[in-house]
Amino acid sequence: MHCTGGHHTKEDYAVRGKEPKDEVQIYTWKDANLRELTDLVKEVSVAARRRDARLSFAFVYPDKNGRFIVRQVGQTMSYPNRKQPDDSKTLADLHFEIGDYLDVAIY
């Protein structure tokens, strides 16, 4: 999912089948890094292509009681000449699990 101006809330994910409407399906591997995911988001989001755009990544997953948690995991800048420490972090490094949602906020 991607959202301009901030992350979706955990309540946005509370009902299965009624997730946020701005969903984008991305098929990737756990060794993909946040820079590669940034480039994929830029392909589908005009806001992410702005030269000064900042993308914030969060994992959304259920806790042991079935309530969703939104956990921010990293940030990138739209253009790679503005390198960020999180660019090279992979989904595996950040403990992404199959079935989790990846929520991307674009600022």
Automatic annotation (TrEMBL):
Gene Ontology molecular functions: transcription corepressor activity
Superkingdom of origin: Eukaryota
Pfam families: SAP18
InterPro entries referenced in this protein's UniProt entry, alphabetically: SAP18 (IPR010516), SAP18_sf (IPR042534)
GO cellular component: nucleus
Similarity section: Belongs to the SAP18 family.
Descriptive protein name: Histone deacetylase complex subunit SAP18
